[in-house]
Amino acid sequence: MVLYLSPNKFLDKERRQKQFEEFIENGEIILIGIYDDMPCGLVFANKDNDEQLAECGSIYSIYFLKEYWGKGLGTKLMDEAINILKSTAIFPINLLN
Prior knowledge:
Elements: H1 7-10, H2 13-25, E1 29-35, E2 38-47, E3 57-64, H3 73-87, E4 93-95
Parallel strand pairs: 3-4
Antiparallel strand pairs: 1-2, 2-3
């Protein structure tokens, strides 16, 4: 799923900075999509938090700026997130919405 985010509603810089710091501290997988040297998208993934799915991974967010939709970047980031999760023996992988 690719979502277009309204900057006013979702991109509160202070809140996002704190959230990113927490993601990094918790070992979350954060991939940034770059197109023509411009950051244009994000994918978040990690080991699933559900105890019953302890050996599973989750890709739980993917965001791209609308002007970069349809360029194959989402597929590339999803593939990379899946490869990272597989390389750490986290498989199967859930896609959450």
